[in-house]
Every structure is written in structure tokens, then in C-alpha cells.
Amino acid sequence: MMKRPTIADLAQASGVSIATVNRILGGTGAVRAETIERVQNAAEEIGFYGRGVIEDRRQRLLPNYRFGFLLQQSSRELYRLFGSKITEAAARRQYEKVVAVVDFVDVLEPQNIADRLEALGKRCDAVAVIAGDHPLIGQTIQSLKERGKPVVAYITDQSARDRAGFVGTDNWKLGRTAAWFLAQTTPMPGRIAVFIGNHRYQCQDVSDASFRSYMREHAPHLQVDDSRPTHEEPQEAYRIVSQLLSELDDLRGIFIVGGGISGVLRALREAPVEKRDKVRVVCRDIGPETRKGLTEGLIMAALCHPLDQISDELIATMIAALEHRDSTTILQRVVPFETITPESV
User: Fold this and answer.
1) Rounded CA gap, 171 and 155, in Å?
2) Residue 15, exposed/middle/buried by CB under 10 A (0-12, 13-18, 19+)?
3) Alpha-carbon distance values, 139 to 103, 267, 322 (Å)
4) C-alpha to C-alpha distance for 268 and 300, rounded to whole angstroms
5) DSSP assignment letter at 17
6) Separation in Å, CA 58 to CA 6, 39, 141
7) 0.90 cut: is pTM over it?
8) What is the torsional sign of CA 173, 178, 182, 184?
9) 253 by DSSP, 3-state: which?
10) Does residue 284 contact residue 256 with C-beta atoms inside 8 Å?
11) Cα 325 to chain centroid, rounded
């Protein structure tokens, strides 16, 4: 029979002293988390009997965080998906214990968002927020920072100088990529409709501007209409698209920068086939409704945040913001977007 590994064997395998191993097993004295992890890995390799004790000690030494996430519109499947991915990312953390408090705000008035952000900040160590850029929200961000509660802008940036960071994608590239898709697949002259949720969402405004930049440069045969706000409401998007399809014979494309995709798809499904087939659609992000539109061939491409990766980056940024809360540096984490087509869905 093989000899059971001893404390001395574990100390030698992990490159620490016997006294350090004893402190870990006995739960006495300070030992750095990385040292405990090294000893734990060595215990796994040699089959040391006290692996459970070491893991328990490691867990008890992990820093604990309570993070708040203020998302929008609980009625939208996309935001509920954002929330579930954030919760999964919190559970994946190996070197911290993170409790994710996910909250949704349905009334998108700036004062209401500011009040909800303030309330969430009182309960959490740091907060992430998706919101339009508005002075009232900026004042709340400043107030929370003064109390040691960093705020990270998520998906869409804020102009507030006191924000701790931003986690999102490159919206300039996203808008030009959307324009490339439409320009490359639309040789006939015609009009392009752009739907924006709200001009105060920086991510949407930047994508809108870069979309037009590409079209001016590379597709002069396509006329890009003024942006039409949907206020993130599918019913409003449905109304506008239905009207466009009934009144125009030269509608060639739709770029949906913000919310309302379900309304757009509903209008397209109800339109005559000869009109619907002339219209190319590019949108942002993918939820169940967008996935269905892709499989039906109604959507040409969806330009999406990779939710697992961006959720991991968001929590890592919030931890970094707490660790450097006295710094004036604004943390920027830009995650490349995914391109999903009907053939890759």
C-alpha cells in the first residue's frame, strides 16, 4: 500500500514551510490567499487527506462584495437575459464572493432612474447602471462616489466625470459594420430607416453617427432618413414600420439601434411578401425574438454583446474600481461585439 501523504510531503510539494501548512489546517494565523491556493493545488496533486479543510479555509478568507446592477425594462427578454448572465458571472468568481443584486427600472424618467440608483447604492458596495446620459443621473453618480460607492456605466457610457468606468463594446465600429452589411447587400437606390431608442443613450447615438459616416463614404445611392425614436417601445416601432411599408416603395433597409425589434418583426410579418423581401434588417443584440427573426430570414445580421464575456468584465471592473476607489482614472473595458447571421444562429 502507498504511504498516505504527510504534512511534510504537502509542504515540500507546495514550496512552503510545515508551519505554514499547519496554520492553514488549523485556521490560525494569517496566510495569503494565493499561498492557500498553491497549497490546495499541491494537495490535489499528491492526494493529501485534508483537502476539504484547506478549501474551507480558502473560502473563509475570500473577500466579500455586494454589487448592484440597475438594468432597464423588466418586460424585455433581453434585459432579463443581461441580468441572468450577470448572476452567472458573479457565481464564477474564484477569488471573491460576489452577491449580485439585479434590479430593473421600468419608468425611464431620469429622476426615477437617479432615485433607484441612489437606493441601490445604499445597499451595495458598487453599482453598475444602464441608463441614458442625463445630469440628474450624473449627480447621483457623484454623490455615490463621495460616499465610496463607485458606479460603472454598462453597455452605454455616461458623461459624468465621477463614474468609475465603462464596460461595453466599440459602438463606432458597430455602426459602421451595420452600414457595411446594408450597403453590400443593397445595390439598388433607395431609403434606409434608422430606429433609435433614445438620443440620450450614448451607445445608440455613436452607432447612429458612425452608420451615417460609412453610408456617406461608401453608399451614396442610399438615402439615410432622420433617426426615428421608438422610446424602446415595440408598439411604437410597429406603428412606424407599418406606416413606412405602406407609404414607400423604395424602402431598402432598417437599422435598429435601440429597442423595438419585436414591433419591427411584427410589421414585417404582416407586410406583403414583395415589399418585405426588398428590406434588409440589421439590429443590435440577440434575445429570443431576434433569434426567431434570424431563423425566419427577416433579420440579416445582429451585432451583439458577448454576454458571458462582458458580464465577467463588468464584475472584474467593479472589483478594480473598489480596489482603486481613490484613483481619478476611469476604467475602460471594451469588449468586441459578435456578429450573428441566419446561418450562424
Assistant:
1) 10
2) exposed
3) 20, 40, 19
4) 13
5) -
6) 20, 10, 34
7) no
8) positive
9) strand
10) yes
11) 22
What pLDDT is stored for residue 2 in this prediction? 60
In the block, which residue shows the cell 445580421? 301
What one-character DSSP code corresponds to residue 125? S
Amino acid identity, residue 281?
Answer: V
312 exposed, middle or buried (CB, 10 Å; 0-12, 13-18, 19+)?
buried
Question: How far is CA 31 from each of CA 40, 97, 205, 209, 283, rounded to the nearest angstrom?
Answer: 13, 18, 50, 53, 51
Q: How many CB atoms lie within 10 A of CB 331?
A: 18
Instruction: Give the C-alpha separation, 203 to 108, whole Å.
Output: 16
Separation of alpha carbons 186 and 222, rounded Å:
8
Q: Is the pLDDT of residue 171 over 90?
A: yes
Task: Give residue for cell 475602460.
Answer: 332
**Can you give the length of the chain in residues?**
345
Report d(CA 335, CA 163) in Å as an integer: 19
Residue 175 burial (CB count, 10 A):
29
> Within a 13 Å sphere around the CA of 334, how many CA atoms are in the beta-carbon half?
10
Burial of 309 (0-12, 13-18, 19+ CB in 10 A): middle
Is there a contact between 273 and 214 (Cβ–Cβ < 8 Å)?
Answer: no
> Tell me: the pLDDT tens digits for 103-138?
999 999 999 999 999 999 999 999 999 999 999 999
Alpha helices (H) in 67-123, listed in sequence order: 77-92, 110-123
Instruction: Determine the Cα–Cα distance for residues 187 and 164; give it in Å rounded to an integer.
Output: 45
Whole-number pLDDT of residue 127: 98
% of the chain beyond a pLDDT of 70? 99
Residue 160 C-alpha cell reads as 459624468
Query: Per DSSP, what are the bridge partners of residue 101?
Result: 68
What nine digits make up the cell of 230?
Answer: 421608438
Indicate the burial class of 82 (C-beta count within 10 angstroms; 0-12, 13-18, 19 or more).
buried
CB 99 within 8 A of CB 105: no
Tell me the C-alpha distance between 131 and 72, whole Å.
8
Quickly list DSSP for 157-216: ----TT--EEEE--HHHHHHHHHHHHHHT--S-EEEEEEES-TT-HHHHHHHHHHHHHHH
